[in-house]
Amino acid sequence: MKLLQTFISTALCLSTAISANAYDISVNVTSKQYQHITGFGAAALGDLMCPIQDSTIIAKLYGASSPVGLNIMRIEISPNLVGDVVTPWDTPYDWHGYINAVKCAKRRGAIIFGTPWSPPAAYKTNNSASGQDDAGVGGKLRTDRYRNFFPWLNFFCSYMKSNGAAVDIVAIQNEPDWKVSYSGCLYTPSEMHALVRDYGDRLTGAKLMGGESFWYNPAYTDSLLNDSNTCKYISYIGGHFYGSGVKSAPLAAATAMAHGVEAWETEHFVDPRNDDSMGDKKVFDSPIWSEQIMFAKEVNEAMTGNLSAYVYWYMRANHAFIGDGKAVASGSGNEDMKITKRGYVMSHFTKNVTGSTRLGATISASSVMETSAYIKGDSLIIMVINSNSTSTTLNVAFNLPYVVKSCTRTLTTESLTCDKQNLEILEPTRTPKFPLAPSSINTYVFAIDWNATGISRSSVIADPVYTDVYTIEGVKIRSKVSPDKATEGLHKGIYIINGKKVII
Question: Which residues contact 501 (CB under 8 A, 6 or more apart)?
């Protein structure tokens, strides 16, 4: 089998030899820097939203040394009032159901954020954790309970921390714009704004994430970020890629970047055949290769849309990163406890892009290919996703902002999985060229030759300069905002920026 794989790998142009008759695809990279990439993750959930409790699963998925390399974990904050009590949401759905997964992930360097699907029933207009009653009337957070909401989240954070499972970030609400029959709660953008404006100072247990709209509706993030009275409480915004989320997210991210706030994609799954019309067999089949390409493109588009993190839905499922072993057709690849092909596709991003800063990049064949570029330390990282399955011989010709002296490529195709190759660069260059396999996911990691480039490393990869903005009374209203955006949208008045008074 190993010999066969080696043969196939060679056939798919592992050689650095360039065909003179091949069609060149050009990738142009600029030195312009965009967002910092915090990382990638998934929800610690399996079927029926049951918390993942098996530490073996977490060990396979989390940490730089794991096969998949995730570093963000999302958990549900169940609607309990006082920790672990006998309720319809009892074990393992109570808060303690996530403790083991969180502890394991934290040991592997993970960021943990919790999201309520619903506040406690006693806080809601329908007196139920369900998103709507039998008549279809949606439940909302009662206005007289706004004052209790953040103290409730503080209690959750305290409970988790006391059990060795500290949570770093808490969100306001999962999909506040989507009325559901299961656990849920509705907010309009103005209602969420009022909650944060009047009571955001009561959250002390973790950093706050706003939004998490079903389709990344910018109204939910803009209402929080464009008001200095609420922006000061927001450290992150989140949203989902259902509906038109992939297209809407960059609009929200643009507002977030202007205020020095990270924008995250916090839930989606890519499984277009998970549909009753396709029959039960298809529901549990692992994604076919074209769907893996589709997934890689979605993650890539999250990055090019200025998002700092991409968090998948279930971590254990046929369409996720580790198999659940459900009954499927022979050869589906959905083996229980085995890393799936999608998990290895995700590792292209987790292993290389986490902790980097995105650069500008374009590709000539944009109708069938995508690209993105990043800088991290002495490495220039370039993703090339080729959805064209034709066997036409192709070369990818790079035009780079820095001189590079060596290159390693990770290649994944339908038949190859994360195959690492050293690609020969005979002498330092800004314009390397390599063969490109059909229907493939490619991660090129170039070593930058700073001396040959003629610029200092520190001038290129130094941390971006950010500033905080204070009112004249000393109240921080903006955190880590770029200097050119520091005064954008502020009301008339006197502010302190970089220790100096600024009059608007």
Answer: 472, 494, 495
Distance CA 438, CA 432 (A): 19
* Digit-coded pLDDT (tens) for 11-37: 443 345 676 667 899 999 999 999 999
Query: How far apart (Å, rounded) are the C-alpha atoms in residues 59 and 68?
Result: 10
Residue 39 belongs to some domain of the structure: no
Whether 312 and 335 map to the same domain: the answer is yes
- Alpha-carbon gap, residue 174 to 187, rounded angstroms: 10
Owner of token pair 């970047």: 257
Residue/partner pairs of 142-149 with CB below 8 Å, 24 or more apart? 145/119, 146/194, 146/195, 146/198, 146/199, 147/199, 147/202, 148/123, 149/119, 149/123, 149/195, 149/199
Residue 465: φ, ψ to 5°: -85, 120
Write out pLDDT tens, residues 183-195.
999 999 999 999 9
Is there a single domain that holds both residue 173 and residue 158?
Answer: yes
Residues 151 and 284 in one domain: yes
Domain hosting 331: range is: 49-350
pLDDT, tens only, 270-294: 987 665 444 444 556 788 999 999 9
Residues 6+ apart with CB under 8 A from 456: 450
Separation CA 5–CA 224 (nearest Å): 52
CA–CA distance, 281 with 329 (Å, rounded to integer): 7
The pTM is what?
Answer: 0.88
CA 184 – CA 240 distance, rounded (Å)? 15
Are 198 and 145 contained in the same domain?
Answer: yes
